[in-house]
Amino acid sequence: MKEETRTIHPDTKSPPHDNPPLVYPIYQSVKFSLPSVGEIEKVYRGSREGFTYSRVANPTVSELASELAALQGTECGLCFGSGIAAIQFMFQALLSQGDHVVGLLQSYRPTRSVLRHAFSKFGVKSTFLCAGDYGALEKLLRDSPAKLIFFESPTNPVLDVVDIERIAALGKAHGATVVLDNTMAGFHQHRKVPVDLYLHSLTKYATGMGDVSGGAILGSQALIDRLVPYYVNFGAALEPLVASLMLRGLKSYFLRYRAQASAALELAQWLEGRPGVAGVRYPGLPSHPQHALAKRQMQEFGTMVCAHLAYEEREMKSFLDRLHIFKVTGSFGSVDSLAAPAKMFYGGDLTPAEFAQSGITPGTVRFSVGLEALDDLKADIEQAMVV
Ligand code: PLP
Fold it and tell me: Measured in angstroms, how far is the CA atom of residue 359 from the centroid of ligand 1?
């Protein structure tokens, strides 16, 4: 073999089987070989495990999917290049023309937009109900059967806690597939609730560094198998290098999450009743309207605090401009603390009637609590509130 050929086809060696690396390798390869065309056919038919093309499956990405499924307590999962890609995929795979989707008004704005503006073009109808109005949900499911119920708990951005078992039971009784977007709660929460699928944006807690985007759908082998034929041609696959960063990040997930959640509780307690604060929403506060449900349903109460500041829109913008440590951005879950003006980031698409029901006010801010010293975070808010 000439040297040009050998450099392209080197004699590669794997480490011995009893000598594995402690960090799962990054399989930075789009293509994989198999010993014969017959074996490739078997992979295509699903009668043997294996890899052919990274968009379809990649070992590092599969390892991440298994790790996330183990955290969430499901059998398996699929990973995507972003959370919203996972959402679009799910709608594409599960819905047909004429289907009806029920969601909550209190939910991540782009999810509403995808249904209202993209999927409506293909004849998919969507209805958004107020979180906690189980009577309205039951009536709607009776009058206008739904193929899919898609919801969050706690909701983004106002942190309503939703009775997952109740929604799942209503969904099952009316033949709907029930999907919980568990991004806000985290990978380890709401295990074993009777939902069909969990959806996660991995952009938040997987690394906690705000450096990479990803999404996942987790569920039973039987349901994920039904999605795979759509997945192979969807295209928004997660890159192996990103999956490897996420596998690394997950090693510190519980440490980060629990430290951030306990700081969030303390910040919420400190904010409550302060001058200029009209109300504080944190599922771990006894004053939260669904605190009892949150205690029953959640292991931790999350890393976000929603505060209704006694501001009109202009004063709110000045407050945000005065923050130094909290950075104003739409994401959450990072070790850096973040602040999101709820109306601007999450309420822009709501009609005046929907806005009135949404729980958002012009002064509502969603704080995502990071790992800085809590005293510095309090001081940052305090100095920004003084005009
Ligand atoms: N679901 C929820 C509840 C979110 O808050 C987000 C993003 O903030 C997403 C889905 C979308 O995730 P991504 O930003 O990774 O596309």
Answer: 20
Q: Which two tokens stand for residue 188?
A: 């380890």
Let me know how long the chain is: 387
CB 207 within 8 A of CB 249: yes
Closest CA to 65 of 56, 260, 165, 190: 56
Question: pTM (2 decimals)?
Answer: 0.97
All structural domains of the chain: 37-250 (3.40.640.10), 253-385 (3.90.1150.10)
Q: Is 153 in the pocket of ligand 1 (CB under 6 A)?
A: no
Residue whose CA is at the smallest distance from ligand 1 atom 15: 83
What Å distances lie between residue 11 and 4, 5, 6, 59, CA to CA? 13, 11, 8, 21
Instruction: Give the C-alpha separation, 60 to 66, whole Å.
Output: 10
Q: Which atom, in ligand 1's list, is nearest to the CA of 152?
A: 3
Give pLDDT tens digits for 275-311: 999 999 999 999 999 999 999 999 999 999 999 999 9
Residue 340 near ligand 1, beta carbon < 6 Å = no
- Which residue among 79, 80, 84, 332 is best mutated to probe the pocket of ligand 1, counting the most ligand atoms within 8 A of its Cβ? 84
CA distances from 40 to 11, 12, 53, 234, 376 (A): 22, 21, 11, 21, 58
Atom in ligand 1 nearest the alpha carbon of residue 183: 3
Whether 213 lines ligand 1, by a CB cut-off of 6 Å, is: yes
271 residue type, one letter: L
CA of 223 to the centre of ligand 1 (A): 22
125-163: pLDDT as tens digits: 999 999 999 999 999 999 999 999 999 999 999 999 999
Contacting residues for 53 by C-beta, under 8 A, at least 6 apart: 30, 31, 32
Ligand 1 mean position to 201 CA, how many Å? 5
